[in-house]
Prior knowledge:
It is a single chain. α2 packs across α3, α2 (59-70) crosses α5 and α3 runs antiparallel to α4. By secondary structure, the chain is mainly alpha-helical. It contains six helices and no strands. The termini are far apart.
Amino acid sequence: MNWEAAGTIGEIVGSIAVVISLVYVSLQIRHANKQSEIDSLRHTWDGLNQICDRMSESKETASIINRGRNALGSLDDDERLIFEHIHLRLLNTLESWYLQVIQTSRPGPYQESQIANLEGIVAGYFDYPGSRDLWDDLRAYFDPIADIVDSKLSSGAD
């Protein structure tokens, strides 16, 4: 075997090693991206759980939410502040969730299922007369999810 043949074999082995390294690195990046996506969603779910905890922490809070859902005008100023801020926190969390899903995942079944989950939460929390009235007051501040909320509420209005 001459030096030229050995050099060619070395180049081939080196090229194969580079390709294997690139495949390995791409798999590691893909895994890290998936983990980051899971961590982002976990943060969103933690936020939703905190809102649920806040709503169920006392009979007084539950009473404010139930009365506010039925008629926003039935709340005094202090109760309305509590009701508004719970819903503001929920809307902030939903908007964050929506933007995270839209910006980090490709269109397809996963993205569609996340948006459907978001719509379910919108229906569960805002499909009440008082909550709809509050949404009318807050809509301008939540442009990224406004169409989703409006669409879900109009489809459930009948």
